Amino acid sequence: MSSFSTRPPPSNANEATREGPRIGVLERNTAVAQRVGRVVRAASALGEVVVEEDPASLRTSLGDDPILLLCDVSDIDLALDWTKRRYPNLAIAAWSSGSMDPLLEAARDNPTLVSLIGWPAFASMPRPWEIALATRRLTDGGGAAPRLGELFAWGSTVAKYRPRTSAERDAVVAEVLVLSERAGSSPRVAQRVSEVAHEMLMNAMYDAPVDDEGLPVHAHDRKADIELAERDVPTFRFAVDGVHIALQCVDPFGGLRRHHVLDGILRGRRGGEGASVLDTSNGGAGLGLYRIYSQSTVMITDVDPGHFTSVTSFFDLDVNPREARSMPVSLHMFESSRG
């Protein structure tokens, strides 16, 4: 599914491994560990990756300053302890085939936990494209976020919109519904996709815009009709490859923070959507982000503070809505920097 631009492997293997391997995979199931290791190597330009079933062996084999550890939720406490006691530059991607609550709770207090990967019960391993995405984004030194089309194989269809007014927002949402049905989704799934599209655009057009002093411009009244200045218009994309539908909304403000995402999702999961009022402080979308997350298969936030916020949502066309409600939903939270 992924089609990232390729990079050549290191020209000098000895130089590349002078400080020891910087990427580790900790997985107790040998077959899964081998599969994940292959994907990680490919996504890291065929760099050296240590794949182990035993934490002690992994710690012995890693270099002095590892940058990425991928592991099962059963090892998350150990991984987080390593970031605090041994490896300050270590980022973590972890997967779970059960409840995502332990990972969500851990991520709230540990910014080193960046990728929370939901492993569908019917799959033989966590989704390879998610492993590749996490690996590339977390080892590429804060490189550019991939556009939506880059997360799909060649031959997919991508539509782009730039809604400026409330009426144009509604027109985009209506077209997303039509396109989803045309792509082969059931009416129920198409409705879910269009609801997420609406929430994404509401967040980008009402919650995200701030004035020169950093104060929200439209968040105080989400029911008002608005017309954005050209520089404030978000970019919205719809993509389909026959297996997945994906939505991506990018605003030019970059005000979203991981605590907005995690607090909104956890609050929604604890009490339902009626348990709390919408939090629009600092451009946060509060429970709107929970609505996006809970309806998705995979949710990705990618932020360059002060420059852009990108929110991406994936839907699996081969999973019926009832089964989708019980599947663990992935959450990736990346942050770039121009400094």
Approximately how much beta-strand content do the residues carry? 15-25%
Unreliable residue runs: 1-18, 273-285
Shape: globular
Backbone CA Rg? 20 Å
Mean pLDDT: 88
In quaternary terms, these chains amount to single chain
Task: Set down the secondary structure blueprint.
Layout: H1 13-16, E1 23-26, H2 30-43, E2 49-52, H3 55-61, E3 68-72, H4 76-85, E4 91-96, H5 101-109, E5 113-118, H6 128-139, E6 157-161, H7 166-182, H8 187-207, E7 235-240, E8 244-251, H9 258-271, H10 287-295, E9 298-304, E10 308-316, H11 321-326, E11 330-335
Parallel strand pairs: 1-2, 1-3, 3-4, 4-5, 9-11
Antiparallel strand pairs: 5-11, 6-7, 7-8, 8-10, 9-10
Helix pairs in contact: 2-6, 5-9, 7-8, 8-10, 9-10
Descriptive keywords:
19% strand, disordered N terminus, 36% helix, alpha/beta, 11-stranded mixed sheet, 339 residues, globular
Describe the structure.
This protein has an 11-stranded mixed beta sheet with strand order 2-1-3-4-5-11-9-10-8-7-6, with helices on both faces. By secondary structure, it is α/β, with parallel strands linked by helices. It is globular. It contains 11 helices and 11 strands. The longest helix has 21 residues, at 187-207. Helix 5 runs antiparallel to helix 9 and helix 7 packs antiparallel against helix 8 (187-207).
